[in-house]
Write a structure and sequence with these properties.
With 93 residues, the chain is of the alpha+beta class. It is 46% helix and 15% strand.
């Protein structure tokens, strides 16, 4: 297991509907957000616009981005479940 990235949140500017807004995310979430945008073939600002439009009014943009990254990673794990490298399920009887 990899050690957590303990660096503090980093603030970055995004442009949403022509307006600059600052978002503060932990570096691991910035990495995941960039990776999600790349997998979808989108610019980071375009993905931010999509997430912003989909979020409920009482959910902040940073929270919505974190949940989107987490949802994407969860979906990737569901598509590619981890398989134990040793042992055979039938031999445990």
């Amino acid at each position: 297991m990899t050690a957590p990235d303990w660096r503090p949140p980093a603030k970055r500017s995004l442009t949403i509907q022509g307006h600059r807004t600052s978002v503060s995310l932990e570096p691991a979430f910035w990495d995941g957000f960039r990776a999600l945008a790349a997998r979808r073939g989108m610019a980071l600002n375009a993905l931010a616009v999509e997430i912003d439009a989909a979020r409920p009014p009482d959910v902040g943009l940073a929270t919505a981005i974190r949940l989107s990254v987490l949802g994407d990673l969860t979906a990737q794990l569901a598509d590619h479940p981890m398989v134990p490298s040793t042992g055979n399920a039938s031999s445990n009887q």
